[in-house]
């Protein structure tokens, strides 16, 4: 039984380390830039592209389009990104960094989501499938499956967030 308890503690400690790293980074992003960690992550995904559709941005952030849309709307209000019609397909809207958004990125550190995505992406296919299945099982068994899988720490941004100086 001691081995099982030790392994349970190891799993929980790993989750705690990930959540703590995200929480610390989120607080730092809010203090320094007045942005949630999710907003900074979205800005960084836009940095490598001239413009992206919301669906393309959702793919890059590994989230649902509706989650990305909420974050992008906040960034548009802050004038950190702009929405425009695609030059190739006028029915399609594109999102791009504004000069103000690009200026923030010149000072901003890389967000921890990047390291997580890169590390997870390097897992062998079988390990990745097992990890995904195990985590999904834990979420379901713990009764957390109905919680939205929004961009990490976007829910912390809000009225208490200060605007950057």
**Rg estimate, integer Å:** 18 Å
- Which stretches are poorly predicted, pLDDT < 50 over at least 5 residues? 156-165
CA-CA gap between termini: 54 Å
The total count of strands amounts to 2
> What helical percentage do the residues reach?
55-70%
CATH class of the domain at 34-108: Mainly Alpha
Mean pLDDT: 86
Overall CATH architecture of the domain at 34-108: Orthogonal Bundle
Shape, principal axes of CA atoms: globular
Tally of alpha and pi helices: 7
For the sheet with most strands, the description reads: 2 strands, antiparallel
SSE arrangement:
Blueprint: H1 2-33, H2 37-47, H3 54-61, H4 65-77, E1 81-85, E2 93-97, H5 99-107, H6 112-121, H7 125-141
Antiparallel strand pairs: 1-2
Helix pairs in contact: 2-4, 3-4
Short précis:
With about 160 residues, the chain is mainly alpha-helical. It contains seven helices and two strands; from the N terminus they run ααααββααα.
What does the model show?
The protein is mainly alpha-helical. Among the domains are: 34-108, Winged helix-like DNA-binding domain superfamily/Winged helix DNA-binding domain (Arc Repressor Mutant, subunit A), CATH 1.10.10.10; 110-145. It is built from 7 helices and 2 strands. It has a two-stranded antiparallel sheet. A hairpin with a 7-residue loop joins strand 1 and strand 2 (93-97). The longest helix is centred in the N-terminal third of the chain and has 32 residues, at 2-33. The protein is globular, with a radius of gyration of 18 Å. The N and C termini lie far apart (54 Å). Mean pLDDT is 86; it is low at 156-165.
């Amino acid at each position: 039984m001691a081995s099982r308890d030790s392994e349970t503690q190891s799993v929980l400690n790993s989750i705690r380390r990930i959540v703590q790293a995200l929480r610390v980074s989120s607080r730092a992003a809010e203090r320094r830039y007045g942005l949630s960690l999710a907003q900074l992550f979205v800005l960084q995904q836009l940095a490598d592209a001239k413009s992206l559709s919301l669906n393309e941005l959702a793919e890059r952030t590994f989230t649902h389009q509706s989650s990305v849309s909420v974050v992008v709307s906040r960034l548009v209000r802050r004038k950190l990104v702009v929405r425009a019609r695609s030059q190739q397909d006028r029915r399609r809207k594109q999102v791009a960094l504004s000069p103000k958004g690009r200026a923030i990125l010149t000072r901003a550190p890389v967000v921890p989501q990047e390291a997580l995505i890169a590390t997870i992406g390097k897992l062998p296919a079988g390990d990745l499938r097992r990890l995904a299945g195990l985590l999904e099982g834990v979420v379901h068994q713990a009764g957390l499956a109905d919680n939205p899988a929004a961009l990490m720490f976007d829910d912390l941004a809000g009225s208490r967030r200060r605007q950057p100086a």
